[in-house]
Amino acid sequence: MRNVLTIWRKELRSYFASPVAYLLLTMFAIIFGFFFWNIVGYFVREGVASLNRGEMFPMNLNERVVRPLLANAGVVGLFMIPLITMRLFAEEKRTGTIELLVTSPIRDGELILGKWLAALTLYGGLLLLTALNFIFLFKYGNPDWKPLAIGYLGLLLQAGAMLAIGMFISTLTKNQIIAGAATFGVCLLLWVLGWAGGFETATWAQVLSYISVTTHTESFSKGVLDSKDAVYFVSLTFVGIFFTARSLESLRWRS
Amino acid sequence: MITVKELTKRYARNTAVDHISFEIQKGQIVGFLGPNGAGKTTTMRMLTCFMPPTAGSATVAGFDVLEEPMEVKKRIGYLPETPPLYPEMRTGEYLEFVGRLKGLSGTELSKRVDYVCERCSVAEVREKLISKLSKGYRQRIGLAQAIIHNPDVLILDEPTAGLDPKQINETRDLIKSLAGDHTIILSTHILPEVEQTCEQVIIIGKGKLIATDSVSNLQKRASGAESVIVEVASRSGELDTAAVQTRLEMVSGVSKVLFKEKLQTRNVFEVESGRGSLARGDLARAIVEAGWDLNELRPSAVSLEEVFLQLTGNQAAASAEGASAKGASK
Questions:
Q1: Residue B70 touches partner A, C-beta closer than 8 Å
Q2: What does pTM read for this prediction?
């Protein structure tokens, strides 16, 4: 556990020693802020319009603002994840520091866990910044906090899985760009795979649609904690971490 | 301290290390010598548990590299060919990180960091970013990280590669000063380095063990005879080379006199004799009494270079093949 902490600290330090972390935080905050402004503005205008029509105020903040915002945050996160994971192992392989890590008395599992947790922490930081926007929602409106919390939990679980996959891809190459591009491709594919279920009802389409991330984010952004979806993300995380461990091991036999 | 038995590493297409066996005693400083691509780095990587051997076994401080890699890793300090540094860290910060990786903590950690900074003379750049430091400093930081946990065994892969002559000397002195506390294996393809720093030498070529012996024994082994270089000068005009040669040959114990070069009024000879039978005093006296000046009289040591050439045989072919083997292994 101590070793995991050592690696975690070093990774976070590396993120914040380079402009990477600041760039990601800024980009994410700006984009999410824009979404927030846009969606809330639309919500208010529509609310006023419906009042003018003499309707009751049937609009729900959680339904009309929180849900689309969180769904969007997931999509933006998709673009951020390759930028977070691409350097994790590729950089160590390129500069040769992997030799230091592998010849130190720490287990591969500790190394991998430390790195993954650091990536997840950075992503958590991104999400934390977006949470600032919701303060306004609580100040001027009256949303329910529980679905919001579940929505964030969903984003974090989803990121954990994607980060694990990205980390695995990063062990395969010395080149950060290749690792980043491949991770982006895989994440995107996992995202759009759900479309297969839209027009096909055959078994293969259902399988594809199950594999897709989209299928499993919907319930979370609705504010529903579905154990089936949680299990999906957790097992995807384990798969990613497991493959990372195997890849690290084979690195030794091949190098 | 280190026992290697029939160690072998095969890659898909070539064998990088082929049944190597040797033993290293505690506190020794051992040169691991061979042309580029001979298998030095591969052997070291197996000893440091970076990669497992294909066959054979190696034990470090009594622990097998395959069975108990954790115990081995705790007792080894390793400096790979390129120092494993994080350019975005500060020197002190980096050393602290490595110390933690090696299992140090608390006051012990800060004490060790202070100590290695002092020892490797990097204290003055402790607060500097590694990316801003010169190659010499980086190499020393690399050494500092290798000794941070006071390991029994130090494995250094070409520690002087890419340094300027002054830095090379500093690094060598540093390594020599570390011997005693640590058992050191140091790989190099530079022969004088071994002569200057090591007590024991292991020569490998094309993945095979060629020789393992002490440096002085190897030098002796290469030469059955002892030879001295003599420079003789004349005070009055031309020097009669033939006369000098005949006179030198008459000195007792001399078996052969080789004329090396003629420089106006000075001649240089190489005088060979059976081991231990040459009296240098007699040689000097003979020259002076014949009315010549004795400008220089020095033993011509057989360099390891010659030993190496003799042992590895066709050097040109070996290094050409070695280069391609190295290319394949990387």
A1: yes
A2: 0.81
